Amino acid sequence: MKAIAVVGNPKAASRTRDAAERLAAALGLDCDVLEVTELGAGLLAWDDPEVSAAVERVRAADVVIAASPTYKGTYTGLLKLFLDRFPTDTGLAGQVAVPLMLGAGPAHALAPELTLKPVLVELGAICPAQGLYQLDSTYTTDDSLARWTGRWGRTVLDAAKARTAR
Q1: 86/58 Cα distance (integer angstroms)
Q2: What CATH number corresponds to the domain at position 127?
Q3: 37, 109, 118, 164 - which has most CB atoms within 10 Å?
Q4: Where are the alpha helices (DSSP H) in the chain?
Q5: CA atoms of 108 and 85, how far apart (whole Å)
Q6: Which domain, by its residues, includes 44?
Q7: Are strands 63-69 and 96-103 parallel, antiparallel or unpaired?
Q8: Among 74, 150, 140, which residue's Cα sits nearest to residue 110?
């Protein structure tokens, strides 16, 4: 199965990207990465061919990992600009999605559930698991990813397999 990490961090090659790639690896998925920041000003032009191609790359994936740092308690405006390119209800219709956010402290631990997951569902995605929130200072050394995959990994993979079986 193929995953795509849609990384909404304004900084390329960020910890957010690394966390998304680690999540895909923990799930045993081959992962393509889309750094939204690399789309540049094309995000503001509705007819930009590079952005349209990026949207199609996301639509072709079995699992979409929507990854963002936590800014002001929510995901980045950069990621929002990209997600706005997908039609409501049908943009991610039936695709399995996982919201992933990194933050500085535990105060925003519900941000993936309360801010990012509703947008993914609005676009038609299936989010069969709790979103993953990790502390940006310890995500490489703590057990948050192992705990999450132990609890939700099989659920995500089974949902993706069911989608590809259709």
Answers
A1: 10
A2: 3.40.50.360
A3: 37
A4: 15-26, 49-60, 77-83, 111, 117-122, 144-148, 154-165
A5: 26
A6: 2-165
A7: parallel
A8: 74
